[in-house]
Amino acid sequence: MLPLIKTNIPAKSQLMPKLEEVLYSGYVAQGDVVEEFERKFENYIGGGNTLSLNSGTAALHIALILAGVKQGDEVISTALTAEPTNVAIKMVGAKVRWADVDLSTGNISPESIEKAINSNTKAIIVVDYAGIPVNVSKIQEISKKYNIPVIEDAAHALGAKFRGKRTGNHFPFTIYSFQAIKHLTTIDGGALQILDNNLYNKGKIIRWFGLDKNISRLENDIQIQGYKYHMNNVNAAIGIVQLENIESIVQKYIENGKYLDENLKGIDGVELIEYYPDTEPSYWLYTLKVKNRDAFVKMMAENGIMASELHKRNDLHTYLNDFPADLPNLDNFYQNMVHIPCGWWVTKEDCDKMIELMKKGW
Ligand SMILES: *Cc1c(COP(=O)(O)O)cnc(C)c1O
Fold it and tell me: Where N6-(pyridoxal phosphate)lysine occurs along the chain (predicted)?
């Protein structure tokens, strides 16, 4: 079965020398290797400051704290995402206010965000779902107009671009996940990309119990709630080796995605996703809309290809559904949406096979 997701670990010969060096160095906690990973990740993103963490969820949590979201506040978010996006909102005691999606992309709708804003709104979380960048320019305008910070959940969208610049450069906070199945894995891990230098320094303190690592333990004075969210040297060593290959790995997703975009045009029962102007997806999954989805998924499975909607609508989780809302575009999009594989393990022959199968119908 051609899987929808797959873990990418560099070849032994490439990974082991660095990993063994760090494992037996006597220093496996957060140290110089973490620092090295952060500076290299910043370099890949092309701007901002990288706060490395032990998960993408930790990155969301710290972003919400730095955005000033507190108990009882509201955060506008999308229901079409992985659960951590919205579970994190509850971690600061805030409530989730749903915005609907755009029908042609599945990403959060700027118009719907604007309608959901009220005096309790303290942040907006947007998700580049399946690697498709959100409507960056419209969302930036709304953020400015209402003075509400935006957190971009780019867990699916490492390497995706807007106006030629990678995710991580467009909003005050962008989160990445380095969990097993993402574009880049450190086994587990995450990063919060922060544009403001002062907030970056505050983020460093929050990730380590509220302690300032630049001051000796005895002279430290904890003044804010902190957590144990740091990355360690072992995960960072894996991250550094992964970064050596990241351009070509992400490029494989993009090449497959573009090839499918070109060759799935005009097929009966298939509707392709549209991309916003000036954006370049990094196609973590290939997303499309199909008629008779159940029959489609079955036909693909019978031919050895995994197709799935993968995520459950988050508004169907009782705990996350603080303000039940009518989401007609999401109802429509979710009914026909499906993902097919397009990652680094998918060959051109695999793509051709999927295209032929879809042309034959289901
Ligand atoms: C994976 C993921 C996260 C959380 O990442 P973890 O590293 O698993 O905590 C957050 N948001 C989305 C959209 C994700 O897919």
Answer: 182
